[in-house]
């Protein structure tokens, strides 16, 4: 990425996004992402280009239940994909396409760089895509195989990314899957499900720590019981007990209520809603506590 004169002047004048938006994926951003994608493989190889776009296109067609993305007269998969990509108004579908682009770079091109390009580092393409999101004030980032929603650069750099990095440890694979699911639910506005997976991830971390430390516990133990085990074995200093109890109360008081009213007992006449602010708080608090617990455990 080049720091052009016009960009520098906008920054000096304070004309840079201060608050993230999520549903305005403008054409400039979409185009810049395609440039980054195309740089990751040899555009001069016509067959390779066709194969790359056809693979992504087929996934979208199957998942959406369509025969064509945009052009029912299509002759070229790149043309059909790009027409859809630039004309689609549903921003979540555009994010679907961008996520598949990132996954292709991450899992296909990075593993077989000589099959796609002999001159470009695919990691640079992924870095550029994330930088373009930030440059346009769009609150998404590709992390650990998925596009996730971010609400501030500080929270993202100090909580979300470190949490994902720690959970990348194979011993915490279950917690990692649940934490990423929580982010996916939050991205798509499924706040109740997000809270549910926050609790699951938190409990999975506690269980993994107990297992690795050989502390006796049952798989059916709740976070309250698991936290008590950690306290009794002095993983967590006693002066932090209230803070962890608060996290437990936040997560456990919301989820059983949702299950009771929406699950076994039905919702009745009262509609249960969980707003974005509370969900974001729970997600970030979960990440902060996971970082603390894993660091305290010294599990490598």
From TrEMBL:
Species the sequence originates in: bioreactor metagenome
Pfam families the UniProt entry points to: AbiJ_NTD4, DUF7014
Every HEPN AbiJ-N-terminal domain range: 4-162
Name of the protein described by the UniProt record: Abortive infection protein-like C-terminal domain-containing protein
InterPro entries assigned to the protein according to its UniProt record, in alphabetical order: AbiJ_NTD4, DUF7014
Residue ranges of domain DUF7014 in the record: 170-295
């Amino acid at each position: 990425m080049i720091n052009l004169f016009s960009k520098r002047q906008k920054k000096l004048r304070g004309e840079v996004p201060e608050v993230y938006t999520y549903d305005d994926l403008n054409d400039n951003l979409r185009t810049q992402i395609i440039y980054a994608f195309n740089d990751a493989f040899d555009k001069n190889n016509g067959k390779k280009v066709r194969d790359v776009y056809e693979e992504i296109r087929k996934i979208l067609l199957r998942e959406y239940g369509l025969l064509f993305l945009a052009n029912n007269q299509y002759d070229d998969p790149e043309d059909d994909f790009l027409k859809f990509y630039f004309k689609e108004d549903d921003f979540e579908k555009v994010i679907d396409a961008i996520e598949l682009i990132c996954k292709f770079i991450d899992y296909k091109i990075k593993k077989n760089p000589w099959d796609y390009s002999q001159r470009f580092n695919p990691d640079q393409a992924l870095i550029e895509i994330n930088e373009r999101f930030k440059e346009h004030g769009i609150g998404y980032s590709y992390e650990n195989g998925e596009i996730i929603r971010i609400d501030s650069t500080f929270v993202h750099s100090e909580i979300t990314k470190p949490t994902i990095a720690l959970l990348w440890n194979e011993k915490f694979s279950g917690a990692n899957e649940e934490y990423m699911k929580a982010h996916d639910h939050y991205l798509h506005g499924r706040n109740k499900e997000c809270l549910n997976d926050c609790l699951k991830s938190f409990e999975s971390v506690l269980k993994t720590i107990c297992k690795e430390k050989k502390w006796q516990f049952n798989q059916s133990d709740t976070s309250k019981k698991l936290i008590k085990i950690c306290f009794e074995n002095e993983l967590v200093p006693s002066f932090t007990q209230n803070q962890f109890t608060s996290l437990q109360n936040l997560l456990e008081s919301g989820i059983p209520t949702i299950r009771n009213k929406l699950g076994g007992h039905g919702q009745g006449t009262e509609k249960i809603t969980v707003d974005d602010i509370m969900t974001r708080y729970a997600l970030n608090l979960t990440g902060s506590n996971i970082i603390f617990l894993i660091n305290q455990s010294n599990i490598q």
